[in-house]
């Protein structure tokens, strides 16, 4: 059983959290600041820059303008910026076209935005965020935070479409209050980012007010609960739960449900004080109710959802998770120190920063006052808030305990049935949340302790449910509750979930990502990357409308043409040659494979995942395949193009563990940890990597002929860590002394 995360863009490259990007802007006009001020206060249009350089890569004729509300001031040298690389020409940097830069206004610590997004991404789809140093016409303007814009590219990456109803709540009062069926009543409050959608928005507001039993059909309730708990715990009041009731998007996925997306968290950790019930002092922020606005009709997302007992228990369960994983264990402070270390030199050299360097250093822990405004010390606010939340009646309720989650078959054949069981105590109700694909929504199914659902004896606290195996994987979680509290397993569900892999009917069987002189493409006589599929069944399978991709986050890259058939127990070759015109005979994708390592993803015509492999760096003219065909482990091999796979090549294959292969003890640990690997092939090299809570590598060692490891962790701070084996299997452990 493996925990998987909801799909999301890898935090590398332009938004790698441990990097500072360099952005240079060159205007033809020397009075560029006056021009940007004039357009900001007038038409709010873009000015064409002669060029923009990102880390030395030049883009001619990009659009640039000032952005922001309170953070913008025409008297400031350093104003927030919005860059549109593709406004005048089709161009992008690492796939990003829209760049939004915040100037650090009201944040002496310079980490609020990046730290808040870092925490948020553990629980829902959210922007990547890091830092950039900005130069305009060869003048160093200063250090900015650089956060991924929520655009059609963003929703396409995270929700697999970009042409559905899409709204931004950037005006005051975007609270989803139902004003009646006339869509014109909503025009002043909501900004539509799509070509249509007013009817869908009105339907959402109407359902929230008048048909709460149908709310899960029109909005992702779980993601909404994560949004509301995040805003509350982090005292992020410049948001839906504060008086502005703004700074979030909603996008309707192909299941017809709106998905909330939080935006602009630079005033998290108590910088914005208007809760809708007046301006809060720091002490009032520390003790702000975990159910703020639960009785206020002006905040219908809070009021109507928390009026449903199950949703309220789920809300508190999510809130407990955020508090325990980030604040009770103090890992947020470790992350804050790490971020300040990244930008320390850049802050010192920033000629236009709004606070002194000493205020930057101190605001992580200490309040900083400038004029009438006080920025709470982040730990000063959150340590007291954590103590308060843990003492509330809601947090004091005892939830059920979930353990021993087991599928009856860990690798079931397709079109079979399995039981999923779990041991649950102190519960009135237990549910399985499940789906067959990341493109589906989770459905909750009641689990039973009646002796008739693979659960052993009736009344033994083992709950079970029968699950049909109809696709290549089953994604699931367990939710249990009693009259007072609920709990999820995994606790970050639905953002994280367990996965059961199914023996596929059609499998990605072999591929070559560095074909220099091995197999010629018969259709053009060149050496291209190729992918081999294998039909594991005794019947022909129609692949018409299926999808193939090299990116798990963008799985619908290439679609099989109509009448594509793979015969019974046969092979099919697809050439990954980036043939965007599709003029050649045979099957040719619009992408190539990366020899440095990426993935191969196969989905059926309904978008359900059929097969997926994430592969390491490849060797020239060496294939990577399953042995035996269709179901075996992946390994390097001498290619068997369009034929049955041979055995693995000895000496270059790594040992690939899954999570169940790793044992760590003691856990929690004190000064040492002992790691054991269930390695049946000890001749292979194994690389052990330990990451701290913000993804920084703090230990790395490669060994051969060993199945165990002792690591001295006495110098590691207390907190949560991840140990990774060959960058494939991961296990969490805790250091507590």
Name its key features.
single chain, 737 residues, disordered N terminus, globular, alpha+beta, 17% helix, 40 strands, 12 helices, Immunoglobulin-like, seven-stranded mixed β-barrel, six-stranded antiparallel β-sheet
Order of strands side by side in the largest beta sheet? Answer: 2-3-4-5-6-8-7
Main sheet summary: 7 strands, mixed, barrel
Parts with pLDDT < 50 across at least 5 consecutive residues: 1-12, 654-658, 679-684
What's the number of helices? 12
**What is the C-alpha radius of gyration, as a whole number of Å?**
27 Å
The helicity comes to 10-25%
Mean pLDDT: 90
Total number of distinct structural domains: 5
- Which band does the percent of strand residues land in? 25-35%
Distance from N terminus to C terminus (CA atoms, Å) equals: 30 Å
Global geometry:
globular
Number of strands: 40
Q: In terms of structural class, how would the helical and strand content be classed?
A: alpha+beta
